[in-house]
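Q: Predict the assembly, please.
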Amino acid sequence: MPDLLIELFSEEIPARMQGKARDDLRKLVTDGLVEAGLTYASAGAFSTPRRLVLSVEGLTAESRPVREERKGPSTNAPAQAIEGFLRSTGLTLDQLERRADKKGETFYAVVEKPGRQAAEIVAEVLEATIRAFPWPKSMRWGSGSLRWVRPLQSILCLLTDETGAHVVPLEVDGIKAGNTTEGHRFMGNGRFVVTGFDDYVVKLKRAKVVLDTAEREAAIWQGAQNLAFASGMEVVPDPGLLAEVAGLVEWPVPLMGRIADQFLGLPPEVLQTSMKEHQKFFSVRNPKTGRIEGFVTVANIEAADGGEVILKGNQKVLAARLSDAKFFWENDLRVAKAGMGEWVEGLKSVTFHNKLGSQAERIERIAALAREIAPLVGADAGDAERAARLAKLDLRSSMVGEFPELQGVMGRYYALEAGEKPAVADAARDHWRPKGESDGVPTEPVSVAVALADKIDTLTGFWAVPDEPTGSKDPFALRRAALGAIRLILANDLRIQLATDKPFPESEVIQPGEFSPFEFAYLSHLDLEQPNRLRSYYWTERDFMKVISKAGMDPYNHYCKQTLKGFEKGNRVADLLSFFHDRLKVYLKDQGVRHDVIDACLAMPGNDDLTLLVKRATALSETLKTEDGANLLQGFKRANNILSQAEAKDGVEYSFGADPKFAETDEERALFTALDKAEAAITPAMQAEDFGTAMAAMAALRAPIDAFFTAVQVNSDNPVIRRNRLNLLHRIRAVCSGVADLTRIEG
Amino acid sequence: MSDAPTTPRSFQEIILRLQSYWAAQGCAVLQPYDMEVGAGTFHPATTLRSLGAKPWAAAYVQPSRRPTDGRYGENPNRLQHYYQYQVIIKPSPANLQELYLGSLAAIGIDLGVHDIRFVEDDWESPTLGAWGLGWEVWCDGMEVSQFTYFQQVGGHDCKPVSGELTYGLERLAMYVMGVDHVMDMPFNDPDSPIPLTYGDIFRQTEEEYSRHNFDGATTEMLFQHFKDAEAECERLLAFDPQDPKSGKRIIMAHPAYDQTIKASHLFNLLDARGVISVTERQAYIGRVRALAKKCADAFRLTEAGADQ
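A: Predicted assembly structure:
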């Protein structure tokens, strides 16, 4: 059983690409080997900045011989058919076998593939892998045509068995595979011969290369912590940075330095971001002061002077960077203290989207919407509006210009500096959240109001343009925005009717809550040329006329006609709601709620209240997992089918109420009693939106319904009895339809 | 590294050492291009010569201008006029990284004491319609060079691929000599009879050009010159290659490219004057790129830019 060792040695591979490259190399090579008929015991892939390595253990020495047999046409078949068969098999007529069967004689093609040596297969698979390697970005170099992430310099490819190590004969674009490699760029000592994986790892370490990324990560983390600990400090954990740094060095040497006093007043996020983004430094915190006071940089060399020059150089670069940051911070603080008016002005000239106006216009809309949403989330309307006006101002700050990832974090500092309430300032930071699937959801009401207003404004805006996502294209990340809004609503248990079409308000002045959030936001977009011109609202054409005449405007001028025309395009609000429902389905599916369960709940009224919708879905999903629930579903469907057929046939609706006095059997009477009992439990439960209790009461009907169908023939010859029984089935349908439309459940 | 390199004593010594080093590696040591450019890459020895199949190896200093970076000579390392050292070799040799490291040693960077790193940095020039993959080279955490394998220039695939090295000379020299403010850096040997610092030579011009770039330059004239350069570039390329006077086939790729360089610099000046809006910006970059592409197309039809 030979072992295989492959090393693809190149110029520096970007750190961020190494992880996937390891997985791809392992998968492509092992899949190729298996497909060619080899098996192996285990495989492991490794990377350093200059090499991509695969070790495969327990490979079979040769592939099993394969015999393939294909049945062809009859020997009497037309010449064309036989020729076709020859073409498809690549054989000649005399190579075909003739076999007698019931119908006469038939051609067979028998192809025997002898077993092949592992070396031959490895060479083929590796060449194919190299040529088709899925680097996110690849390049050519010199005069060659091969593509690799950076110039590929050498290939090591060895099969090692009891007779020794054998180079796999292989050449790719002029690079011949061999049995040598080299160590560290500066501390290694030329090329050396390798005989197998264990030998390779040992010799690499001697040549100052740690092959395993996990080992380098551990060394960096341990080293950094030791350095920090020695001076009573602690390293701020950052797994992403750790992985990146481990991909930048072959021989990690952590060095610790101190941040000059003059920079210690910068916010910790600024220090951390500047050091991480520009210098790949870990932040070191002083537990006594809670401040970031030092850094750990990771060199790739054991310097002759113990790293003194390296540390000094890094410290100097850091000082220059932090001087810039300090300049930005002080400059921004000046603007913040003056009330941020400069930034308000500045945002007027920043385009958000060419049809959705400037950032300043967008902020106006979000502020109005946040005020509208505030009471629905328990926030003070004034605070929500104020927070919305401030939340995006830091987009104009120098610091966010330099570090876009500090957006929000800086906004909070600047709002506090401007003397705003903490809840208002926090919204600047938190209204961006959730930023991704793993990010938490804000819970402070002011933040929630602004976060929701921000997302709903974006979504309704792109729906109004219209420029909603199609297929895989979602350049404005609208799916993420919708999911963010959904998570905000669910995590905070918010009861909001997002899109309910309410009657047109009769009041002179528009009152809060007269429009649903979607309508409110959508209407503020309708005149896309002049989004702020009409601060009034309409829904039908008639209502629109009323509003604009109330506003003293001429309904027949150009602008109004344009707006009306836009409005006639159809109900985009309903369309946006169904986009939310699609996102919600994906979200709930990930939580284990079945697709049809969600559909059944979506069919119920009030489905723009997502919290209510999820309550229904959860109760239904849980009930269907019980035996009673699953059986009830069958009983319900049976009742519903019989009833629907009868109703279709008779052209009437059997909803007059069944009378127990026409009941003939005990089972029938029992069902009446059970339904009475269930209704008594379900009605208050439904009022309390306690869908779990309601579903449990429905599930309790399972036994009486089953017994009823076993004992009773619904379509009795007696029309009175039949009608009464159909009316009874109608009660089952009615009683069981409170939580969800069970007809939509599959199975 | 065995033979400990000495630390250079002046800015010019670093340039001289780079010149001798790359001359010894077989590069033609060219002189700066005699036009205002934003970076060494704009020199036709890089842009145009990286096209076509003919082998090429050149090294040169290129004075470069970035009008928006003017800081009146006050910022320790920001200048509107600065020097780049540029090396371009086609096809890129297999040992280009080694050669590059040799050049660092040559200017006094002890590779046994410093931490040299190749950190991913993909290069793209929207005005030249060019891109390549490579790294920024870090020395103790500071970026000292750009190292790029050209993949496309002027919209043409680079076949073979050129390897390009760009050193930011002031920053590199300041680091090597331990100088904190660029204006304090010795330009010639500090023991010369007349020692001159970088500031002695450039402080005044940084002031003058900063004022010029931000406030002085006449924008109407610059807009007109931009249009003229654009029109002239296209006009020169529209000539019939057959020259009636000499009887030769002469495509005016270089003269046309000069106009592209001009247009690019005029755009940079207009940008510094703050008269180009965000949306217009992209359009101007697109116009310069269109010229660069046409010049590249034309150069490919000449002898120096041919496939054979």
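The mean pLDDT of chain B is 94. Chain B touches chain A at residues 76-77, 91-94, 97, 110-120, 122, 132-135, 139-142, 149, 151, 158-161, 163, 175, 278-279 (CB under 8 Å).
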